[in-house]
């Protein structure tokens, strides 16, 4: 059931809800106040009196002063406040607050409401935070997310968040209704990516992933082309063919398009869609293999992103492309030692069939580059080496030039997602040299994420602006109960959206 939002200028103490969650600036850091000036109202105003002094006692006991990431939670035991619990979230210094901070605060509030089995949430924004109304709505949608499709009986949640009142100290923005709608579209898009990633592999496989993309495209009026196995072979996507031919469920390919009348830029986002990764002939150990249902998170991100683009309609041409396959071992499976061609024309020696993601991405990138993008992005749960380097809560990214790096860095800051730039060390290219083909598709154990990025770069042609994002996915795929900017399924979509929105707002001469 969709969440219904209401926005009004009122103190939270006067509202009705199961949970009241408020954001609090660090003491002394509000935008007003000082000698001779009337203190600025806060979302906590009125609670101490209504709760017979309980709030002030709790603040003193827990030394709660609004420090960033601090929390104060207490039950409400008076009929003068129409809620069961009050939760205050410290936001830190007012002057340093960002859109990402408000999004995360709102997500934490929604997650806490779920924990209390709340149906109604009152979210109190402090003075000055009303400018981030859209981010607050995004956060609520992301934090309220739960994947409950396959739960039955007592396991099925008895309550879900259906009503949210966002209160402001200052007047809400004049376009509050539009901002709420935009925030919901963004949240729904990210949650669509999470839904797809969390589907079990017996339900979501290459064909059904394409069906989900078609349903999304139809809902949002987007154009979609889908290739079956016969078309993949006809077009010469030999690396995608190689990875997917060992499964009874054959590979697919999809191209989703959003083309406004006079776009400023053309941006393409490519995703890896391995709907289950057994490792193929180079089979994985059993431990953790169940998480390989998330190995299509890159493709899920593409579908979720395009849903957002179809709803928000930015003045940028956007194409979402994914290649999908199951990597399974059988008599038809590709083998270590094989040499396969590619859509690009290069021949590739197969070293390890568990390094399949870069192969299907190579054909997808060769296809995408023909559309002459101003910016080409690929995203994939590609290497365990990236998790070793950065941990399971941070994505790594590589860029082809410094201008692109600056734009990406700004997008990451706006999204609040955790990503770190890694270097394209040219010396590691030697790892990809083959004695019998144009390339080997993997290098040594050391620098594995970098050599994977260097392999993918071989297939972007003359594309000037390119980003490869090695996303934190399968290693933390079970973190599905609440949005966390540091990782989990759906990680990356907000950054991609920020890149597109920056392009829409920028002068035509910049990316």
What does this structure look like?
- The strands form three sheets. The chain has an eight-stranded mixed β-sheet with strand order 7-8-10-9-13-17-14-15, with helices on both faces. A six-stranded mixed β-sheet has the order 1-6-5-2-4-3, sandwiched between helices. A three-stranded mixed β-sheet has the order 11-12-16.
- 32% of the residues lie in helices and 19% in strands.
- The longest helix is centred in the middle third of the chain and has 23 residues, at 176-198.
- The model is unreliable at 474-482 and 507-511 (pLDDT under 50).
- The two termini are 38 Å apart.
- It has helices spanning 47-50, 54-62, 99-115, 133-143, 176-198, 206-220, 229-235, 238-244, 297-312, 357-369, 384-390, 402-415, 448-457, 493-505, and strands spanning 4-9, 19-25, 71-75, 85-92, 120-124, 163-168, 223-227, 252-258, 266-277, 317-327, 339-340, 348-349, 375-380, 395-399, 419-421, 439-440, 466-470.
- It has two domains: 4-174, Leucine Aminopeptidase, subunit E, domain 1 (3-Layer(aba) Sandwich), CATH 3.40.220.10; 214-505, Zn peptidases (Aminopeptidase, 3-Layer(aba) Sandwich).
- The protein is built from 14 helices and 17 strands.
- With 511 residues, the protein is an alpha/beta fold.
């Amino acid at each position: 059931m969709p969440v219904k939002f209401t926005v009004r200028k009122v103190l939270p103490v006067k509202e009705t809800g199961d949970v009241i969650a408020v954001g609090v600036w660090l003491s002394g850091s509000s935008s007003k106040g000082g000698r001779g000036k009337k203190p600025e109202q806060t979302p906590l105003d009125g609670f101490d009196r209504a709760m017979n002094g309980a709030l002030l006692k709790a603040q003193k006991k827990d030394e709660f002063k609004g420090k960033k990431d601090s929390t104060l939670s207490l039950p409400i035991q008076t009929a003068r406040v129409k809620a069961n619990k009050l939760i205050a979230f410290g936001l830190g210094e007012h002057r340093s607050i960002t859109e990402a901070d408000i999004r995360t605060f709102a997500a934490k509030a929604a997650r806490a409401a779920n924990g209390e089995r709340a149906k109604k949430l009152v979210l109190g924004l402090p003075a000055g935070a009303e400018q981030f109304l859209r981010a607050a709505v995004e956060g609520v949608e992301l934090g309220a997310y739960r994947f409950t499709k396959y739960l039955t009986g007592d396991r099925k949640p008895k309550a879900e968040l259906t009503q949210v009142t966002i209160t402001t100290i200052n007047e809400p923005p004049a376009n509050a209704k539009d901002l709420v709608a935009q925030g919901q579209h963004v949240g729904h898009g990210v949650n669509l990516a999470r839904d797809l990633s969390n589907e079990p592999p017996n339900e979501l496989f290459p064909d059904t992933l394409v069906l989900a993309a078609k349903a999304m495209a139809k809902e949002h009026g987007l154009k979609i082309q889908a290739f079956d196995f016969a078309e993949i072979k006809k077009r010469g996507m030999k690396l995608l063919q190689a990875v997917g031919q060992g499964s009874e469920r054959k590979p697919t390919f999809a191209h989703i398009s959003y083309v406004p009348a006079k776009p400023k830029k053309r941006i393409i986002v490519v995703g890896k869609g391995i709907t289950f990764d057994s490792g193929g002939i180079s089979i994985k150990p059993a431990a953790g293999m169940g998480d390989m249902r998330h190995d299509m998170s890159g493709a899920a991100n593409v579908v979720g992103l395009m849903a957002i683009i179809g709803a928000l309609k930015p003045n940028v041409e956007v194409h979402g492309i994914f290649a999908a396959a199951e990597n399974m071992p059988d008599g038809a499976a590709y083998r270590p030692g094989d040499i396969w061609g590619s859509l690009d024309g290069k021949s590739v020696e197969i070293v390890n069939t568990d390094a399949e993601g870069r192969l299907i991405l190579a054909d997808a990138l060769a296809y995408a580059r023909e559309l002459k993008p101003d910016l080409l992005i690929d995203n994939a749960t590609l290497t365990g080496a990236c998790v070793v380097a950065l941990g399971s809560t941070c994505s790594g990214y590589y860029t082809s030039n410094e201008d692109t790096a600056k734009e990406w860095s700004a997008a990451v800051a706006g999204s609040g997602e955790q990503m770190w730039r890694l270097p394209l060390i040219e010396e590691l290219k030697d790892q990809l040299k083959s004695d019998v083909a144009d390339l080997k598709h993997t290098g040594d154990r050391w620098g594995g994420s970098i050599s994977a990025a260097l392999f993918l770069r071989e297939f972007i042609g003359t594309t000037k602006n390119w980003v490869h994002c090695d996303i934190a996915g399968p290693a933390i795929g079970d973190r599905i109960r609440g949005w966390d900017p540091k990782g989990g399924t759906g990680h990356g979509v907000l950054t991609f959206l920020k890149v597109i929105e920056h392009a829409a707002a920028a002068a035509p001469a910049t990316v």
